[in-house]
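FAQ

Q: What does a record look like?
A: Structure on top, sequence underneath. For example:
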């Protein structure tokens, strides 16, 4: 069996042809077009076409991970804070028409968690959360060995858990969400607000424009002792730990896997968040919470999307 797993993120689109054993037969990636629904759909269609021709045999279906609130049964993107042009878009149906293949759509981090459970750091675990710190902050849960969708299908939107009432503005329109502190987009927005308020930092001389305020640049400035950068990353880890404590106490999990581009930095967000979570969680008093890195890296989403499609095909 060969299926294509596609992983649409706020910044990149990745895709892989995966066989029934989990071998990645080919892999491709590109930037996420953010100007319209049509341009993103066309980019996905083009990538699937390329992957199909590289597949070396027939492809049976496409699994597609997409950020935001996904009606996975109906194949509809209901709301996507980081790709706001997608509001009640029947994406699976559009793609099925264009591709002539069955398309199974689900939340991007839920499928990444399925990938980590299948082949990665979650292989031996029945209960864990996967949090990805990318453009936004996504999360997925595996409970009792299976993906946990909740009654709404939207379970585990930890990125928009409010960790600071009346705190930093979030892309969703609320204030003080975890994502506003602990994601590439949130860090950039907070850094820009410090810059606008005249705070002094070496970062302002390290950038050509505000788009350059990436987690990696903030990390570099922090390693040089910059107080604003250290404050931004310390806040990110602290609020992440607070949210993990809430998740652990609510769901009864002890293992959290972190993915995304903020986990391989000099500033060790994983262990700082782990310390904070263990200080905050009541359940941690009966057994420590572990926060570690996921294993499949930037392929977790596409491998998981492929696995999700295989599970759907098999009923
Ligand atoms: Zn929010």
């Amino acid at each position: 069996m060969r299926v294509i797993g596609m992983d649409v993120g706020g910044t990149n689109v990745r895709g892989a042809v995966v066989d029934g054993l989990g071998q990645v037969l080919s892999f491709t990636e590109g930037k996420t077009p953010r100007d319209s629904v049509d341009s993103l759909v066309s980019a996905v269609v083009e990538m699937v076409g390329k992957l199909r021709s590289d597949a070396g045999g027939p492809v049976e279906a496409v699994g597609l991970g997409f950020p935001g609130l996904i009606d996975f049964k109906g194949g509809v993107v209901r709301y996507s804070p980081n790709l706001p042009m997608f509001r009640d878009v029947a994406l699976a149906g559009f793609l099925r028409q264009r591709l002539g293949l069955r398309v199974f759509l689900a939340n991007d981090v839920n499928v990444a968690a399925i990938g980590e459970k299948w082949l990665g750091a979650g292989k031996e675990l029945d209960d864990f959360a996967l949090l990805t710190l990318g453009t936004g902050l996504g999360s997925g849960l595996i409970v009792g060995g299976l993906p946990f969708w909740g009654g709404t299908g939207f379970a585990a939107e930890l990125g928009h858990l409010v960790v600071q009432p009346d705190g930093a503005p979030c892309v969703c329109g609320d204030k003080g969400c975890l994502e506003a502190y602990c994601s590439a987009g949130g860090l950039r927005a907070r850094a820009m607000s410090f810059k606008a308020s005249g705070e002094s930092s070496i970062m302002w001389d390290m950038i050509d424009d505000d788009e350059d305020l990436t987690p990696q640049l903030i990390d570099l400035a922090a390693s040089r002792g910059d107080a604003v950068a250290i404050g931004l990353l310390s806040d990110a880890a602290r609020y992440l730990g607070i949210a993990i404590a809430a998740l652990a106490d609510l769901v009864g999990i002890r293992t959290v896997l972190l993915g995304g581009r903020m986990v391989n930095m000099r500033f060790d967000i994983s262990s700082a968040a782990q310390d904070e979570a263990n200080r905050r969680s009541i359940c941690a008093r009966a057994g420590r919470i572990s926060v570690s890195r996921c294993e499949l890296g930037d392929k977790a989403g596409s491998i998981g999307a492929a696995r999700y499609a295989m599970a759907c095909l098999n009923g």
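Q: Is there anything notable about this one?
A: Residues 124-294 form a domain with the Nucleotidyltransferase; domain 5 fold (CATH 3.30.420.40).
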